[in-house]
Amino acid sequence: MNFTVSAISDFGEDELRRIYSLLSPAQQEYINAKPGDKALQSLAARALLARIIGEQAISSLHRDRDGRPQLKDRHVSLSHSDNFVAVAVGDRPVGIDIQLKRFVCEKTAARVCCREETDFLQSSPDGFFTLWTLKEAYIKATSTGFSKAVNTCFIKDGVPCSPEGKNFHTRQGDLFISVIEL
Q1: Model pTM?
Q2: In the prediction, which pLDDT does 148 show?
């Protein structure tokens, strides 16, 4: 598995135009349907993917039956938050999620966390973003709905982790990153 994170500002207009022109009509339509900043985030994520797999291979990007981005021979996961984009590519299903730290209401945490996770949050003020990105990455890797991730505990022996597969989570400043490979 390979993953990377980049600031959207790292992409020049020429590179973004070139990547857009290489995308399939379905991928272009997907980007065009997004409003303003979301379209730029989606295009930048695909440009970051092209840096990993090569620009010519980006034309084979498509959505599988569950709506996940996929290449002919590899699994792909894309994420964006504010001015950042992230990409994971693997031979097995992968999920990546990034979140820029922001205010979170305690009621939100209570709705999406099990008791063990709530206990973890008491000792880790920023732990919500670690758990949230793990849950989102899990949803992307498994194609399960949000309700399953909410009802699944992501704490084992007091440590955040995925209930299945290999996982990695880190923090770069206020940016939280989680990756899961099944």
Answers
A1: 0.93
A2: 76
